[in-house]
TrEMBL record:
<feature type="domain" description="M23ase beta-sheet core">
    <location>
        <begin position="244"/>
        <end position="335"/>
    </location>
</feature>
<feature type="compositionally biased region" description="Basic and acidic residues">
    <location>
        <begin position="173"/>
        <end position="182"/>
    </location>
</feature>
<dbReference type="Pfam" id="PF01551">
    <property type="entry name" value="Peptidase_M23"/>
</dbReference>
<dbReference type="GO" id="GO:0016787">
    <property type="term" value="F:hydrolase activity"/>
</dbReference>
<dbReference type="InterPro" id="IPR016047">
    <property type="entry name" value="M23ase_b-sheet_dom"/>
</dbReference>
<protein>
    <submittedName>
        <fullName>M23 family metallopeptidase</fullName>
        <ecNumber>3.4.24.-</ecNumber>
    </submittedName>
</protein>
<feature type="compositionally biased region" description="Low complexity">
    <location>
        <begin position="153"/>
        <end position="172"/>
    </location>
</feature>
<keyword id="KW-0378">Hydrolase</keyword>
<dbReference type="InterPro" id="IPR050570">
    <property type="entry name" value="Cell_wall_metabolism_enzyme"/>
</dbReference>
<feature type="compositionally biased region" description="Low complexity">
    <location>
        <begin position="128"/>
        <end position="146"/>
    </location>
</feature>
<dbReference type="InterPro" id="IPR011055">
    <property type="entry name" value="Dup_hybrid_motif"/>
</dbReference>
<feature type="region of interest" description="Disordered">
    <location>
        <begin position="1"/>
        <end position="52"/>
    </location>
</feature>
<feature type="region of interest" description="Disordered">
    <location>
        <begin position="111"/>
        <end position="182"/>
    </location>
</feature>
Amino acid sequence: MASNRPAPEFSYAPIDEEFGETDERTWEEWNPTEESVRPVRGRHRVAKQRGGLARSSTVLGVGVIAAVGAGGIATAQGGKPPVHISMPDLSAVKDSLPDAKSLPGVGALISDVSGDDDESGADATPLTGAGITTADAQQGTTAGEALRARIMQQAEQQQDQAADAEAAAAEEAAAKKAAEDAAKEQDAAKAKAAADKKAAEEAAKKKAEAERLAKLAKSFTLPVASYTITGTFGQPGSMWSSGYHTGLDFAAPTGTPLKAIHSGTVKEAGWAGAYGYRTVLELPDGTELWYCHQSSLNVSAGQKVTSGDVIGRVGATGNVTGPHLHLEVHPGGQATGVDPAPWLRSNGLTI
């Protein structure tokens, strides 16, 4: 590499202004070379500049913006008047900052920048008045007061929303409970109506049965007027060939009149072995009534009788231990009889 030509030497004698003397030292002109101007490496390297403006200037601008914002916050928190900060005139260097418009808020600090030239769309409102509406500015409201008012308004809105949500939930719960109560009341009303209907039906049924029995009672009568029940249907014992009692015994003195329980036709009247003297009365529905152990007979086979007619007398004939009427009931003329007591009650008779 070629080196620079050596510079000519010359003498420079500066004048001492105080004593009027000259400096006799000899000075040489500095001739820089590539080696002498090599940049210093390490942490002490000189920062490069962009567009003629050092980065420290940009940092200064950001610091100014932070200071302005801090002043607005301090005003909002402490209620102190806003701090006014003098801003440096940057109009002389704006042309050397091609990317200044991309920094939020920097365009507002350059007085000559118009709204049409601001391509970044940055807010041109001074930072000390950020958040202040025209109405607030007319009333003299500071940024801190405006911020506090908006925070309080937002808090009140949130409280109102929470209260509305709570009220809506309470209203929904009340409506749900009311619907459940109404459903329970409706079910209870239906159950009560069904129970009342069933009770009414049962009462009507009992009344109809009572009327029927009362009507039958007029056509049915007990075979003996005065008696004592001494044997019931189904009693076990060796006295009966079937091993149990097949009828209902009405004990009464010998000769007590025996009445026709209902109108019918005498089917048999005569001796019947262990039954003694027996009369078989056939009713219109085919049911046969057997009157056994009679002392005497007052009717004959084929004779028609009505309810209450005397058909014989109480006796002790046949296989007996004392005078009584042994009454058997054979529905449809079947050989096996049924319990006479329920049959009598079903026809309106009480024993």
